[in-house]
Amino acid sequence: MKASIHRDGCIGCTLCATVCPEVFFMADDGKAAVSQTPVPEALLASVQNARTQCPVSVIDVEE
To answer: CA triplet 23, 26, 28: central angle to 5 degrees?
Structure first.
C-alpha cells in the first residue's frame, strides 16, 4: 500500500502525524509528509484512520 499527501493543500494541523506517527511526520515547512512507503500491512487501519480524519482530505491511499 502507498500513502501520499497533497502537500499544497495541507494546513499543518498535525492530526495525521498524531494518529499514525509510523507513517506521517511534520516536515520542516510545517506540512505533513510520508516517511514510509510502501506502508506495512499492519499499519493499514491507522493510515486509513488518518485519511478519514484529515480535515482537508489531502491524504491518498493506494493499494
So the answer is: 135
